[in-house]
Amino acid sequence: MDRDLGKSLNWFLLLEINQVQLYKAQAHQVADTHLREALNRFAQIEQEHVEKIATLLRQMGGDVGWLTAACESSWGKQFARLGMEGIMSAVDKIGEDKLLSIAILGEQRAIADYKKLIAKTPEPWVLEVLWANLIDEELHSGWMKNYLTGKQNISP
Ligand SMILES: [Fe+2]
Ligand SMILES: [Fe+2]
């Protein structure tokens, strides 16, 4: 396995898992139905990113079994629960808008990192996944920015 690419993909795997947790937790907390549905959809898309990256790592001969084991272990579940609780209390303390701004920063970090990896990746089968994920992150970021400017605040 290409060690540098493997290392980068492991980084994205953790980042994407984090994004799934973040959006799931936020979706539980927000009052607006339109925003909640969007955050739930983002969580599903981030889960697809997790699976696509895990597949790439497996195709490269990497072992992602450690990750499943870590997520399913008692400390893994505890860690996820604490993360969720932290996000939930943050929504109460700093409010929905600030939390969305933080989520946008997270997306921008992911966008910058995907672009960097795309620039140094020659394999078309890896590039296909990286480009697809990058575009999804740009869509998430754009949707949230649009929501914050009030353009999509039209819940049925
Ligand atoms: Fe993602
Ligand atoms: Fe995203």
Task: Give structural notes.
The chain has 156 residues and is mainly α. It has a single domain, classed as Ferritin, core subunit, four-helix bundle (Ferritin), CATH 1.20.1260.10. It has helices at 3-29, 33-59, 65-72, 74-119, 124-148. The longest helix is centred in the middle third of the chain and has 46 residues, at 74-119. It is globular and about 45 Å long. The termini are far apart.
Question: What layout of secondary structure does this protein have?
Answer:
Elements: H1 3-29, H2 33-59, H3 65-72, H4 74-119, H5 124-148
Helix pairs in contact: 1-2, 1-4, 2-5, 4-5
The structure holds fe (ii) ion (2 copies).
Number of domain units: 1
Class per helix and strand makeup: mainly alpha
Bound small-molecule species: fe (ii) ion
The CATH architecture can be named as Up-down Bundle
